[in-house]
Structure formats: C-alpha cells, structure tokens
Amino acid sequence: MSVLKVSNLSKAFGGIKAVTDVSLNVEKGEIIGLIGPNGAGKTTFFNLLTGIYQPTSGEIEYDLNIKVSSKDFKPYKMTHYGVARTFQNIRLFQNMTVVENVLIGFHNGLKYSVASSLFRLPQYYKSERNTYEKAIKLLDKFDLLDKKDSYARNLSYGDQRRLEIARALAAEPKLLLLDEPAAGMNPKETAELTELIKWIREQFDLTIILIEHDMSLVMNICERLFVFDYGHLIASGLPEEIRNNPRVIKAYLGEEAN
Ligand code: ATP
Fold this sequence. Notes:
single chain; Rossmann fold; binds adenosine-5'-triphosphate
C-alpha cells in the first residue's frame, strides 16, 4: 500500500532549482534512504514533504491518517496527517528537561477541552497523567529515563539525537522523517542508532525516510534508496543496486574531486 506519492515535484528559489521534477512512491512499512552529495536537494525535499515549502510545481499526496495533498497542506497540521520529523540541526528545547521535551511532543494528542484545562476538571488531570506515563515509557525505551530531569542542553550529542526522535514519536506518526540522524555520532553511537531505528519501525508500525551521509547506516537498514543530485532523482533501487550504479558513483566521485 502506497502511503506517499510524489508527482513531478519541483522547487525553485529564484534561479536555483533545488528540486526538479521528482516522482516517487513509498510503501507502508518501508525504511527509505535519501542520499546524494551536499546541496543535492534532500533537505529541501523534506521541507516540501512537511509543508514548510510549497512546491513550485507538482504534488505530494499522503495516505496515512487521512488522504491529503500538498495543495491543502498546513505545516502546523503535519502531525495530524501522520507525519513527524527530526532536523539536521537538532531542535530541542534546550532549557527544558528531557521529559518536558517529550511531553511537548504529545501536545497534539491531548484529549481534554480548553474548559477542562481552565477549570482543572478531572478529565484534565487524567489526560495529563496518562501523557506523563506515556512519556516515561518512551524515555525508558530510548534509554533516557535516568536523565529525564536533566536539561536537554546537558545531554551528549547522541542522547540529544535520540531525544529528538523520542519527541517525534510522541506525536504518534505513521511516517517518520529523519534528517541526518547519525550526524556527529561516533561509530558506536551510530551502530546503536541503527538498531534503534529498526526497532522503532517494528514497535511503532512506522514508515521511515531518512537522509543520511553515513553509508554504514544507510546500507544496513534501508530497503530502498533514492539518490538525488543537483535536485534530480538520478537513481532509485535496492542498496546493492545503488552501490554499483555508475551514475551514482560519478555523482559522489565528482563531489570528492571538488
Ligand atoms: P546537504 O546534504 O548539504 O544538507 P541537501 O541535499 O540537503 O544538502 P539542500 O539544503 O536541499 O541540499 O539545498 C539544495 C539547493 O537549494 C542548494 O543549492 C541550496 O543552496 C539551495 N537552497 C536550499 N534552501 C534554500 C533557500 N531557502 N533559499 C535559497 N536557496 C536554497
């Protein structure tokens, strides 16, 4: 079952064509790797997928919580559609604690009315307590429970990246977009993250698209790869096919030669 359909998608910034005529499909439950040299258009593609940018032309369609097209995207409603993401530059609330960061992720799913919040009705307390319990469970799974009261800013880089994923999961997405989840991690942290991503796909019944430069992670967990170069989708297929694709090799070697 296709959960994401991208048709002839383009995005230009003035004269710069960041994404050009990209068409692709993603099936439910897949782990997809989005790779390509620096400046290939990967982050712009994520920004289009999350409604931060409107396409110059073309269309994105989701069939997750509801069917919705990029013509109707509201960026603040992405979690409602079933999409959550993390960012290349970690975006945590640095001056809030670990558990508070996750609680914010639950915000969209809270099940009490404004009135019950204002008047502190039982429904409010029940919902808050359930949410807190869920946050604690999530932190436990992410091995962050002993740090729940630490400020986010005091966590190691690897812990911050995992906390950002935990917060994204709090929104109960069906599709998780990870922008360079292994950036800045050492090989041990990357290996642990690889296992964690596999595990969350199973546990949370997710479809995952990740942008990543770390080929060990990409080749290890991605079932299919999409390769971008200068805004174009130049190849797609199984990791072993991509590894031996002359056009992909040229795109990467070209970058190294610069
Ligand atoms: P990296 O791997 O380095 O993060 P990327 O593949 O994510 O790169 P993008 O960040 O999407 O690439 O950039 C694609 C192109 O679009 C680049 O030439 C970039 O300079 C340009 N670009 C991206 N965002 C904007 C913007 N808001 N305004 C103008 N140009 C932009």
